[in-house]
Structure to design on (613 residues):
């Protein structure tokens, strides 16, 4: 029941908040720099994956190496 | 321009389903005819060399990626590791050896509207270890393409054998769950957060490695399960035209009581027209596993002298130089890269039994890459 | 179950708050004047009476460059029938845009929107964006992005608008 109450309140807030929700502030035509290799987290999957492997074999920690995002955003 | 949902939100709907239908309608309208971009076709070749701590591993890697239909991209990779192992473990408890590991990977990416679905499988073979993995990943662009959300799942299945002992055979299984998000903060600034949970089950040690209890060598005893979590935050920004800096931090913790911090800082800069130079600095620190000991002073259910599970710090400094050859034969964008990284590890609770001193080693990593995209 | 329904509705609300589509078809095409690559200014309103295809592109956008040869073909095919193709380049550095346009052998006029005023006016939702405007200056079709085969629908739509 408590969950239901919380969810109902969240829903109300969201429905009202939807009116004031921020619009994407970086437009598709402003992504020139983001399309540049210099702003990619990973430029070459071969080199980056191998480097992660070297560390994974020698260190105890592993995982959370990352997902691509950003970039040109075309299509 | 006010979002269409705004008006609907204020008007009270009579039934739940009517409201849902209306909202779903506007959601689909936002989706439109947009289709996520697949990675470009490319062919990459790399030579890698690792030399440190008595281990030398080198080999070639080849990757080919091609778009098939409009929305499908397939890739294949062949990776070779020729290992010559005279590490401290090997040298003090056995004799140096050489072996080769081969790994094949096949993958397919499918773009549907704003999502990309990726399926890939790989098979790694060495004389005494076979590992097969299957991966599923989904990435979805939301919020006008400013946010990318990703989910992934990996299932791994290993077969462990032992040189010179045909009676030894065991297995290990792995499950990995990934969740991540990348957010564009400005036309020149990105950040991302990634979380991964890993579950291992089965034979999780090495059939050759020995532990030390009261000064005597005994075969190591590892738990047959391990669950770990890692969370990583990254950010990258262009600070002046042509120069970018990045920073990342990862915290790792698991059920073996290991806690590790990884921090990395990097800078990239375009030099002249066709050259890109990178520098990086990495710090690693780890606290030992519960059952790890250099020389155990008690009999415990689990005991291991695997230095990888100990307490140590690592620092590395590296650089990368990339030369863009531009359009070769009018179609192929060719880039040549060279990477060098120097690493140093210092152990706080692992000794070199030959000298009794705390162990430390330096390592060099070299990568030479040729990459052609078209 | 009710909690699950509510959660779903909550997520749908949040998702539905995402921005709506770009310039709606069948509205009047906002007028603009931009400097062309060759020098003189070009005004959209002057093209009244002809069918206009406006293609927004940039050098950093792969699908945009892929689309160029197809647009060239369409331009050659219909230019003598009262069809105008305007390319609007949104690069920060106009010189880069001009260089790539020359390299790709672009035959139609390329206008430079370096300060992104026209892109904002047309509220582009993707790169590239292709807008088809009829003889009376009304937006009839908006294409978001480019995939191989889109040029066939452009061809069909241009022919349809030319018949009017």
């Amino acid at each position: 029941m408590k969950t239901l109450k919380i969810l109902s309140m969240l829903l109300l807030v969201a429905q009202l908040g939807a009116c004031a929700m921020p619009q994407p502030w970086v437009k598709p035509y402003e992504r020139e720099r983001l399309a540049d290799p210099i702003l990619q987290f990973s430029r070459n999957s071969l080199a980056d994956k191998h480097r992660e492997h070297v560390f994974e074999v020698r260190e105890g920690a592993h995982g959370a190496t990352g997902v691509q995002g950003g970039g040109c955003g075309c299509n | 321009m006010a979002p269409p949902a705004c008006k609907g939100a204020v008007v009270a709907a009579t039934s739940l389903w009517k409201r849902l239908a209306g909202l779903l309608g506007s959601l689909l309208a936002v989706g439109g005819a947009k289709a996520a971009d697949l990675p470009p076709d490319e062919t990459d070749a790399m030579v890698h060399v690792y030399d440190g701590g008595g281990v030398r591993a080198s080999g070639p890697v080849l990757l080919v990626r091609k778009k098939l239909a409009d929305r499908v991209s397939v890739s294949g990779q062949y990776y070779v590791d020729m290992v010559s192992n005279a590490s401290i473990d090997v040298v003090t408890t056995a004799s140096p050896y050489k072996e080769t590991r081969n790994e094949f990977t096949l993958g397919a990416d499918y773009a549907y509207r704003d999502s990309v679905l990726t399926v890939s499988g790989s098979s790694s073979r060495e004389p005494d270890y076979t590992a097969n993995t299957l991966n599923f990943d989904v990435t979805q662009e939301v919020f006008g393409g400013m946010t990318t959300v990703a989910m992934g799942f990996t299932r791994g299945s290993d077969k462990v054998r032992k040189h010179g002992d045909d009676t030894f055979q065991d297995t290990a299984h792995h499950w990995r769950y990934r969740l991540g998000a990348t957010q564009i903060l400005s036309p020149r600034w990105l950040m991302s957060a990634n979380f991964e949970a890993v579950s291992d089950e089965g034979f999780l040690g090495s059939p050759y490695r020995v532990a030390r209890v009261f000064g005597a060598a005994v075969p190591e005893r590892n738990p047959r399960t391990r669950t770990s979590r890692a969370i990583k935050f990254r950010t990258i920004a262009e600070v002046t035209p042509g120069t970018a800096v990045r920073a990342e931090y990862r915290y790792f913790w698991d059920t073996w009581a290991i806690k590790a911090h990884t921090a990395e800082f990097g800078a990239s800069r375009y030099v002249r027209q066709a050259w890109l130079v990178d520098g990086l600095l990495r710090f690693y620190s780890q606290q030992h596993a519960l059952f790890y000991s250099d020389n155990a002073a008690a009999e415990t259910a689990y005991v291991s002298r695997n230095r990888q599970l100990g307490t140590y710090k690592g620092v590395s400094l590296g650089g990368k130089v990339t030369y863009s050859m531009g359009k070769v034969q009018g179609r192929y964008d060719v880039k040549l890269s060279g990477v060098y990284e120097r690493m140093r590890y210092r152990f706080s609770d692992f000794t070199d039994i030959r000298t009794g001193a705390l162990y430390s080693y330096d390592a060099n990593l070299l990568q030479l890459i040729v990459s052609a995209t078209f | 179950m009710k909690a699950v329904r509510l959660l779903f509705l909550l997520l749908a609300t949040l998702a539905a708050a995402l921005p709506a589509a770009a310039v709606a078809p069948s509205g009047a095409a906002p007028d603009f004047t931009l400097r062309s690559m060759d020098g003189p200014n070009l005004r959209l309103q002057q093209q009244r009476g002809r069918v206009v295809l406006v293609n927004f592109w940039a050098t950093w956008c792969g699908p945009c460059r892929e689309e160029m040869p197809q647009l060239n073909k369409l331009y050659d095919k219909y230019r003598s029938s009262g069809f105008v193709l305007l390319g609007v380049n949104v690069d920060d550095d106009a010189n880069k845009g001009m260089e790539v346009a020359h390299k790709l052998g672009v035959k139609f006029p390329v206008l430079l929107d370096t300060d992104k005023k026209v892109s904002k006016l047309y509220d582009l939702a993707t790169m590239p964006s292709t807008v088809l405007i009829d003889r009376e200056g009304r937006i009839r079709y908006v294409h978001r992005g480019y995939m191989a085969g889109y040029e066939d629908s452009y061809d069909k739509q241009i022919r349809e608008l030319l018949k009017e």
